[in-house]
Amino acid sequence: MTCMNKTNIHNKNQNKKLLVASIAMVVALALFASPIVAMDDAFATKKKKGNHAEQSISQSQASVQNALCASGGTTFLSCNNVSFQHQKNSGNNALAQDDDDDNGGNSADQSISQSQSSSQNSQVVSGGDTIGSGNNINVQSQENSGSNAAAQS
Predict the structure, then answer these.
(1) Closest CA to 111 of 93, 87, 89, 86
(2) Low complexity: which segments have biased composition (predicted)?
(3) Is residue 126 part of a domain?
(4) 148 contacts 93 by C-beta, under 8 angstroms
(5) Residue 40: pLDDT band by 50, 70, 90 thresholds?
(6) What is the pLDDT of residues 7-35, one digit of tens each?
(7) How many domains is the chain built from?
(8) What DSSP state is assigned to residue 39?
């Protein structure tokens, strides 16, 4: 039987605290550095043959549902699939470029895309009434109140 003295317990607690602090510092550094590293997507890049920029806002949703009910009696309000999907984009996708040399001009690719899909299947086998059962309901809406503007000179 081994006994741990207070010094060993204190050292283990200190090691745990140091590990937690180190992990917190690494996460904080990653959160701070990630926007700086990802900046190239938001700005036009200048090459020897003019400027080229690509910007996009994309949203996507999918729903896959399947229900199967087998009953020897009544299947009241059973095996229903319900899907509500809503996408809203109220931001802007603006791009501006200035080509101050005569080596090829500007090119820009901009897009705002939204997509939704739903696949539903319901099967009911019943020995009695199937009131309110086996229904597939899917409500989808998309809204984009932002703008998609590009300016080049």
Answers:
(1) 93
(2) 104-126
(3) yes
(4) yes
(5) very low
(6) 566 566 667 667 766 766 666 666 555 55
(7) 1
(8) G
